Structure formats: C-alpha cells, structure tokens
Amino acid sequence: MSQETAIANFKKFQQSWIEQLKHSLSHLRSAQNHHRNSTTGEEELLRAAVERVMELCREYHRAKCAVTEKDVIGVLAAPWSSALERSLHWVGGWRPTTLFHLVYTESSILFESRIVDILRGFRTGDLSDLSPSQFRIKFVKGRTVSELQCETVKEENAITEELSEWQDDASELVMGTSSDLDQRIRRLAEIVHRADDLRLRTIIGVVELLSPLQKAEFLVAAVELRTGVSGWGTSHDRRRSADV
Predict the structure, then answer these.
(1) Which of 11, 79, 161, 174 has the maximal Cβ count within 10 Å?
(2) What predicted TM-score, i.e. pTM, was given to this entire model?
(3) Domain total for the chain?
(4) Is the separation of the CB atoms in 208 and 141 below 8 Å?
C-alpha cells in the first residue's frame, strides 16, 4: 500500500469514526438518564455505553498506529483535520493532560449547579461528588489522581523534548548533509507512537479512577469536546473557502 493510499484510507476511517463517536454519545446520554431515573440504580447499560466509547478509543489507536508506520509525515500533516484542530495538535493529536483539565472543569461546573443538594447531604454519584481532596486521596491501583496527572505531565514533557531534539537535527535533512533519512523518519514515527500510547493510557487511566456514573459524565464531556472542535473547525474551513 502506498503512502498516499494509507493516508486516504485513514481519512475515510476518521470520518466514519467521528460519526460512530457521535452515535456513542447518544448511547451514553441515554444510559445516564436511565441510571438516574432507575430506582434500583442499574449500571449495566451505563457500563456497556462506557465500554463502547473506550473500544472506539482503542480502535482509533490501532488504526493511527498502522498509518503512522506507513507515513508518519502524512500523519503529522493531518489532512483529515480542520485548520482549528491542527492548531491544537500536540505531536499529531490532542494533548493528554487536557483530560485532567476536563475532569476538574466538569466537576466544578456540576458542583456549582448542585451546590444546594450537596449541602443538604445528597450524593449524585457523578463528577459533582469529586472534590479537590478526593483527587488527592482516592487510590486506584496504588495511585492517586494527582500522581497520575504528574506522571502524565512528566511523560508529555519528555516526548516534547525528544521531538524538539529531532527538529533541531532536522537541519541536516534540509541542508542535504544527512545520509540516514530513513533512520530519522523511523525515529520520528517512534516519537508519534509514544505520544499516541500516552494519549490512550491517559484516558484509560482517568476512566479507571471514576465510578460508573462519573465515567459516563467524563466521557460525555470528552466526546462533546472532540466532536465539537471537529465540527467548529470544519464549519470554519467551509466558510473560509466560500469567502475565497
């Protein structure tokens, strides 16, 4: 398969994947409503809806890994993304630490909207039940949320530094003085693989820290952000093209 074909196929996959993500969002919302309105607090639908989104994340990771092996330069160019999306990219995709900001933001918004119930002692089970102290003391697999965030920041910085070093060395490619182009491209692919692995591990790690309803709340926010940025960016590109 040629590089052009690999990129074209991934572009089609990306479009289909976004539509599946939107469809999964409706399942998540439906499962949330069912859980909240159920007198028995059933979680089966909620768990299934969450797992559906997580499997989409794993599927995307596998497809991205395959196309990166074929054409890492094409992956970084990201022709399937809007100009807005590309402006937000970090090493070929979203920045992993964004997820922690999303959790903190969503928990704060929900906390503020349900402050009266919380003060009365009612527990909702969603992200509004998470407080800063819980983020520090809640343990899952021997780690706190803050520890997971610190680990992610540290790894993000290491990958950023590695990419910076690769870019510094790239001057030899521009000057035509490098004889190991293939080796340098393979190194770039390894950097992108590290970034993609961190993205997947981070979303899995965050989800594992939450209760079933909190998982759904978080993934709804994450999917809305992902599809929202994609939609805004695409609409902006269309308007810009129409004005030309």
Answers:
(1) 11
(2) 0.83
(3) 1
(4) yes
